[in-house]
Amino acid sequence: MTEITGEIEGIVEGTDLPKRLKDEVYESIEGRDVTDEQAASIAEAVESRYLDTRVEPLDPVGTVSAQSIGEPGTQMTMNTFHYAGVAEIDVTQGLPRLIELVDARKTPDTPMMTVYLDEQHAENREKAHEVVWNIESTRILALGDVSTNVADMLVQVNLNEQTLDERLISAETVAEVIEDSLGVEVTQTGTTIEFGPEQPSYRRLLQLVEELREIVFKGIDEVSRVVIRKEEVEGNEEFILYTEGSAFGDVLDIEGVDASRTTCNNIHEVYRNLGVEAARETIIDETMNTLEEQGLGDVNIRHLMLVADIMTAEGTIESIGRHGISGNKDSVLARAAFEVTVNHLLDAAVHGEVDDLDGVTENVIVGKPIKLGTGDVNLRMGGATTDGSGRAD
Amino acid sequence: MSTNATPKEIGAIDFGLMNPEEYRDMSATKIITADTYDDDGYPIDMGLMDPRLGVIDPGLECKTCGQHSGSCNGHFGHIELAAPVIHVGFTKLIRRLLRGTCRECSRLLLDEHERDEFAERLQRARDLDDDVNDVTKAAIRQARKADRCPYCGEEQYDVQHEKPTTYYEVQDVLAAEYPQLIAEAMQPDEEEDRPATSPQELADATDIELSRINDILGGEFRPREESREAIERALDVDLSEEDLNKLMPSDIRDWFEAIPDEDVEVLGINAERSRPEWMILTVLPVPPVTARPSITLDNGQRSEDDLTHKLVDIIRINQRFMENREAGAPQLIIEDLWELLQYHVTTFMDNEISGTPPARHRSGRPLKTLSQRLKGKEGRFRGSLSGKRVNFSARTVISPDPTLSLNEVGVPERVAREMTQTMNVNEQNIEEARQYVRNGSEAHPGANRVIRPDGKVMKILDQAKEELAERIEPGWQVQRHLSDGDIVIFNRQPSLHRMSIMAHEVVVMPYKTFRLNTTVCPPYNADFDGDEMNMHALQNEEARAEARVLMRVQEQILSPRFGENIIGAIQDHVSGTYLLTHDDPEMGGLPRFNETQALDLLRATGVDTLPDDDGTDEQGRPYWTGRTIFSELLPSALDLEFTSSTGDRVAIDDGALVEGTIDEDAVGAFGGEIVDTIVKQYSETRARVFINEVASLAMRAIMHFGFSIGIDDESISDAAEAQIDESMENAYERVQELIDTYENDDLESLPGRTVDETLEMKIMQTLGKARDSAGDIADEHFDDDNPAVIMAESGARGSMLNLTQMAACVGQQAVRGERINRGYEDRTLSHFKPGDLSAEAHGFVEDSYRSGLTPREFFFHAMGGREGLVDTAVRTSKSGYLQRRLINALSELETQYDGTVRDTSDNIVQFEFGEDNTSPVKVSSSDDNEIDVDEIADRVLAAEFEDEGEEFAGAQATNLSESADDRMDRDRPSSPIDVPEVGDD
């Protein structure tokens, strides 16, 4: 109702509010009939409320965040498998998943992707399925039956025409792929494919069958299964694919995939393909989801942000623990006090390290006040006595 | 600074290796005898217990510094090792150095260009805070590639390392059986189509004279390098053999001594502080006696420390080594002794080296040597340095006391008499101080010690207390007993979050337990089934001020995890407020109270006048409703409206509860709306008063109504029982149908599941539904005034599920998220037929806890219950480690004045905490908008029309003690507070 004039904008922009709140103020002003003065006082009131809720300087936010994530850990289940949203896909949940995230494991226990589709594919089941076949790895057993003819030393594959059509593969391509990857001559008639070892050898025959089973005819090797689900996203019904196994980089290149929304639960894959900021975002999302799944969604997201930020502050993903942040601390004593005590001391001796005793652990060890919170300020008592013998300190 | 003076404050710690000369310089004495004490029990001179190394026996004097035990820290001695030995901690580095430097001139095997490049990379890694080891390892790898030294041209050999401390140089030498090897190669080989070679042919091919060839074949002549290679080429045979040349520590030491400083620097070693040759020990420092005290056993025998035992071994072998060498013993014996010496020195430093048997005590227990002292949870670092024992602390069992304020703690008198606070005596308090001293250390508000201005501490003894009291003057200090109103720190382990350690005000009480208000149980996660807690008395004014301002319970009402209150009504408090404010037509509407009853309800609160009555009863006597009485506790201007999780709309208008029932969502711990709002809009002090008063009102209320639960409260009528039986029967039928379809192969599998899995899932589902419907039936049967229902409804304790299990059906027992599928082959118990898929054969408990379980059900129930126990046990250790790692990684982060979050080395981690600098304590994380702009806008506009300014947050002093509450504005005139007056002596 009220138009945002330059004047109002000037007032709002002049406040200390973060962008999110500024937008809300605009929205709120637009939604009602107010004068410029009223708009100004609204902005002012919001600002003063905001200033009231800010963190105080010298607040030891690190410890508070660590506790706020660690404490609910005691309430989580150890049960590894539970069904997350999609009943068909097992995903590691609870404490094991939280530990996995904080450890920054190279591959999660149950890698998974959530693939969103672009406009052309999202609402059409057929089109969505096309994408599915390009993602899900198709092996021979999905396409037909394999039998070995020992008498003729032949491997026979009877392809199922229906699945071939469905998965958009022709019998010819199947034959070609087999020929290329096994290096044997393949004869194909209709939906029957036959091949055998160059020289009659029973062992080789069986070996061929084994190898045949491993060939990926279509899709991505790492993705063993794709589940397609119709879900409501921002008021629209669309198809979303959930994959078991992940190959984030490959999936982003597939036609029909909306790369801007597709996610993966392997933070390293996200880091490799989208960079460290995306990895940070993934850490936050994944930890938040894990907590929510356990009914602990009330943990303030800012705590998770801090953890994600310290893990990614160096520009790469560092784990929390001996091999990551704690192991790379400047202070010898802090490292020694955490884990592998003796080695850190010996290395420090050889490298001639100097511990400047800045951190928390070191100062606990040497018995000095730590430089956090009230230990970070110095107060001097003013001597207001008239005879000049006022005591300082 | 003399070696003895301990620094007052440590500014920095330098690490480095020690020069042997330095060991000798700082040594108080050389140790040469392995014996400790002589027959008279006196320490032997130059023995391991030499009095120059410090003293442990009281009364003796240290021969180095002249101090007595306790004040003398001890002094190092030294052992001159007969031969150098390797320091086990550096074996890997020694190997690297041996491989990367020239065996002749000791220079790093990199040409100048390469060396400078690595030096540069190293500097870069240091600047960028990267791992320095990556560069040094790469440098060694590069250096190893060189076959010859780029400086002296000497050929280089590979160095083999045999763990833990032996090094060999691998050289290619002529194999001992070279004649056989050549002869064999000259024989014809049919398989490989090789014709025989005659000696003449060989001579031609190799340009060696025939006679020489014959000599070689006869083993009379060893071919030289060139001819050997020629023969090898001609016959396609390998005549070399790897020869391991053992490098003695003395060789290695000589080798390392010659490495130039510049080369060492490239390997990341600080040459000034740590020369590589110092990694090979020639002198062994002997730790002072104070670091390895001997214990006198009851029978007067002395038991020596593990380190002493180890040193005895070292000295003995050292001695023997020297004697043997002087006597000119054969090399073999010398080498054996050398190895033995190496073993003892190795285990002296680390007794857990893989591949070496640990040195053992006579009893067979492995010795605890230097490394073991530092390592692990109980080691020096984690056990003694990061975690310290403290004085002025107490620990005892806790018990509840609803008459205390949540800010207070009841301290047993015995504890109060032991713990002291130091009083600086001045003109104002001298009389008080004297009174404490006169009371002595036995009577409660007394004192234990006085300190004179010259620092002399005097114990207050019963006989001398009167006299001592008179001598006290300003400037003295009196250590008086802990008394009412003092601030102490209170803690319950595990300290998982900051609310596990809070400051309380002392209330001295009789008996032997700490007393707590029950509302502080949630932050400590405490109950009274035998829990113990710790108390710490603060020892200086800064600490007391900090504790009072920052750590007091009322300052911790809001949890930083979710930004809502963690302190509030629990259990019976919730039942009480529920009963008080619940409007149930069946129970006669809102409870009403006459004047006496109303006053009784409010007697433990600060309310001392009743509001206007809500009406009169038939006899014309005024009555008050529960809601009106509850409203008395609310700040008078409070406006609040919310929907509780039961769907009940609760409305508070102008400080009066006009609608809705007060339950856990309103006043409970973990985000009770009213408490939360009061902390945020009023003050912590107001919230504390509110919680205290709600708790005492609720206790009065629940006592008024009476509240109990027994087994009869879970029994249901026969009709309902029959209904449940019927629904169970139905469920069994459906399960049987599923099994039949499965057995006929007609069951269609769910996407991505096998048929077996599908069947299991469907059965689980069916049985789950069966329990729920049984629960529903039971639920319908229960009246709303059933105590179990009241507790579940109000959120006080228990859930409807618990009630279902007690009254109707316990339900399916699960292990690993599946029906019970273990035990015998194809069946769970021998009571069932193999392959039985039915509900009862796989852990479905049809009975209720009240009706009792059958033996089979009981067994399955125990299986499920056991999993829960195991789960908790595993979880606590895992999550404890997670917490430790998280805290270790994040502990250094702090917000700065510029809003950034940095660690203590000033590295920025966030530019703004949580992207908007909002404190997680001050905003609730569950709200969609943490700051409700629309609401503020409405309020601003409304305020403008009414033309009155509104204070959103009342800024009040929050650090007032419990006894200073009169000064708090309660939004109501005059309000004496529920707290007993602080004792005055």
Polypeptide structure, described:
Chain A is of the alpha+beta class. Among the domains of chain A are: 6-52; 138-214, Gyrase A, domain 2 (2-Layer Sandwich); 329-376, Orthogonal Bundle (DNA polymerase, domain 1). In chain A, 46% of the residues lie in helices and 13% in strands. Chain A is built from 18 helices and 11 strands. Chain A has helices at 6-13, 19-30, 36-52, 61-73, 94-103, 119-122, 125-135, 140-143, 161-166, 171-182, 202-214, 248-253, 267-274, 276-293, 301-312, 332-338, 341-351, 360-366; strands at residues 81-83, 90-92, 112-116, 144-149, 154-159, 186-189, 192-195, 225-233, 236-244, 263-264, 354-355. In chain A, the strands form 3 sheets. In chain A, strands 8-9-3-10 form a 4-stranded antiparallel β-sheet. In chain A, strands 4-5-7-6 form a 4-stranded antiparallel β-sheet. A two-stranded antiparallel ribbon of chain A has the order 1-2. In chain A, α1 runs parallel beside α3 (36-52) and α16 packs across α18. Residues 388-393 of chain A have low confidence and may be disordered. Among the domains of chain B are: 1-19 and 90-168 and 244-279, no CATH class; 176-238, 434 Repressor (Amino-terminal Domain) (Orthogonal Bundle); 305-389, no CATH class; 422-475, Dna Ligase, domain 1, CATH 3.30.1490; 711-870, Orthogonal Bundle (Topoisomerase I, Chain A, domain 4); 892-923, no CATH class. The model of chain B is unreliable at 947-958 and 972-985 (pLDDT under 50). In chain B, the strands form 10 sheets. In chain B, strands 10-16-15-18-9-17 form a 6-stranded mixed β-sheet. A 4-stranded antiparallel β-sheet of chain B has the order 11-14-12-13. Helix content of chain B is 37%, strand content 14%. The radius of gyration of chain B is 42 Å and the shape is extended. Chain B has 31 helices and 31 strands. Chain B is an alpha+beta fold and 985 residues long. Classes of the chains: A alpha+beta (393), B alpha+beta (985). At the A-B interface, α2, α3, α4, α5 and α15 of A face β1, α14, α30, β29 and β31 of B. β11 (354-355) of chain A pairs antiparallel with β1 (13-14) of chain B, so a sheet runs across the interface. Chain B: Residues 964-973 have a biased composition (Basic and acidic residues). Chain B: Zn(2+) 1 binds at residues 62, 65, 72, 75. Chain B: DNA-dependent RNA polymerase (RNAP) catalyzes the transcription of DNA into RNA using the four ribonucleoside triphosphates as substrates. Forms the clamp head domain.
